[in-house]
Amino acid sequence: MQQQPFLHKPQAMMFDMDGTLFETETVLLPAYHRTFQQLRSEGLYEGETPPEEIILSSLGMLLEDIWARVMPGASRQTIDRANELLLQLQLQLMEEGISRLYPHVEETLESLHAQGVRLFIASNGLEGYVKGVTRVHHLDRLLEGVYSAGEYETETKTELVRLLMQQHGLQSAWMVGDRSSDVEAGKGNGQTVIGCRYADFGDAGELAGADVVIQSFEQLLDVFNKAK
Q1: Geometric angle at alpha carbon 151, from 30 and 203, rounded to 5°
Q2: What is the mean pLDDT of the chain?
């Protein structure tokens, strides 16, 4: 963890989901391969499944942008069916118990909640997926709100965070996430950004502009405890 600048304790923390709280690849990769198998069987896709690296490097983007990278030029029908299948298969895998949060996520969130920090999710994912993760992993008991681009139809995470803060009357919050969109969302709303560098989905410059970068989730508690 880098040397910590002077930070104020926030009213709230807003968390990205994939690559921040949730080890996305535990369900994403098997669901991704099954999705393309089904698309081929339905005659909606031909050829080999695109490399895993493409979708992993796209995490944090809006779904439309992800599919544009994974299947450039695909029809609306194919994209809609891929969305449907990927969501269905990921939820199924979660229910089977193979998905994981990053180490120490639950106990860190419990500690922050016990200290009166209001906790929220702000994700570019689909509503069913984001709420599925919080339900399966019993995080909903700690969260005041779960915001997703899929539910609120926002075009950027900056817009989603602005909406979240307005609806909950927040003046000070930390945006916690692993992608440049999280940095932009926090800074675009005048807030502190805590960058998470342990998922390895993005490039080296992904977290440029973050106030603090942590190497494991439990370090967030140390950053909070040192803030004034």
Answers
A1: 50
A2: 95
